[in-house]
Input
Amino acid sequence: MIIGNISVKENGGNLRMEAPITLQGETRTCFYEFPLEYANLADTGKSDSFLLSLLLSAMQAGEDIQVEGRVSERLFYQLRDDLVPIMNVFNPMYGKIDIKAEELDAKIYPPEPGRGVGTGFSGGIDSFACVWKNFIDNPPEQYKLTHLFFFNVGAHGMAHSEAELAKVEGKFFAHLQRMRACAAELGLPLVPVNSNVHSFFQIGHLETCSLVTPGAALLMQRGLQRYFFASAGIAYKDLRYQLLFVRDPHNTTELDPLILPYMSTENLLMAASETRLARIEKTSLIVDFAPAQKYLNVCYDYGAKEANCSRCEKCARTLATLELLGKIDSFAELFDFNIYRKQARKAFFARVLARHTKNPVYRSIIEYAKEKDIDLLSYTSRPAILAARLKDSKLHNFLRRIPLLRPAVRALKKVFKSKA
Output
C-alpha cells in the first residue's frame, strides 16, 4: 500500500483532506471532510489518520505500507513494532507487514488552554455513559470533555460504489441532525467528520471500528490533548473471559484496552473509557439523564438510523436492560413497546439464557438478575430457549449447509417458534 501526500482544500464550507491510496495495484482517493470552523483543531500536515485507519486493509492484503508524507514518530514505531504483531496474533488473516515513512515528526504542540478533550458521540449507551462520566459527573479539568465528534467511518454502512457512498452519507447526515440537537442541549460542540475510508475494506465495521475511529480522531491532534474511546460495554473481567474462552477474531473491540495506547501520538493521548463497567452498569448510569431519555439511539438496523426499530438485537438488549432496571417507561418516546413485546422480548431473553456462556453482555444480565432475584424465565419460555440453543448449535450449522436438509431445518424452527 502506498499512502500518497495529503492535499488540503476548501469544499463548500468544509475543509477536505485527501490522499491517493494505492492498494493491490489500484489507486483511489481517500478523504476526510469537516466544517471549516473546526480547522484550528486539525493537524493537516500529518498522514497519521490515513495510516492508522487503513492499517488493517493493508494487513489483510499482505502489503507493506509506504507513507509518502509525514507521520508522528511515536505512532509510527508503535504501529510497526507493537500493533501489527498484536493484530496478527489476534487474527492471522492480518499478515505481518512493514511500515515505512518519508518523514517522522516528533514535534510537541504547547499545552495551550485551548487544547481540549474529545470523544465520539453516536447517542448510544456507551457514548452517553462516557459523556456522563467525563462531563457531567464533575471530572478533573484535564479529563473534562470539550468536544464531541460524529464520524462517518463505517457505522452507517460500508460503501463500495458511488451509489452506496451517497446512501451511507444520507444516513450519516440524517443521524447527525439529532445528535446536533442533543449536543446543543449538553452545551458541547459536535464536530462531524465525513469520510469514505470505509470503502477501502471488504470486512465489516465491527472488525475495523477500533482503528478507523481513533484514526479519524487523530485528524484533530493539534487542538486536542486527550481522546476518550467509549468502551464496548464489556467489563474488563468479562473481557478477559471472552479473550480466553470464546474469542471472536472478527471483533477487534475485544482488544480496545490493550491496543488503544499504541494509537497515541506525542500530542494526543488515546484512552478507553469506563472499561471496568458492563453495559448494564453503564445503562444504570444514564437512565435518569434527561438528554439520554430524549435522544438515545441504539438501533442496529441501518435502515432505521433516525429511529429505534425496537426489534433488532441492540434495541431488544437495551429495552430488556431498561426493563430489568425498572426504567423502561422513561424511554417511551424513543421505542415502540408493542413491537418489542410482540416481536423481540421473548426471543431476546431466550438468547440470554441459552448463550450467556458465550456472550459477556448476556453474562452480565444473568449476574444482575441473580443479584436482584429476578426470574428471567418469566420473560420468555422453555421452547424459545430450546430454539435459541438449536440455532446456536454445531448441529444446526452443519445441517443448514446441506441443501436437501434446509427445508427440514426451517420446519423445525417453525415448530419451536409456534410453541414459543
DSSP finds 16 helices and eleven strands in the chain. The chain has a mean pLDDT of 89. The first strand starts at residue 2 and ends at 3. The longest helix spans residues 162-186.
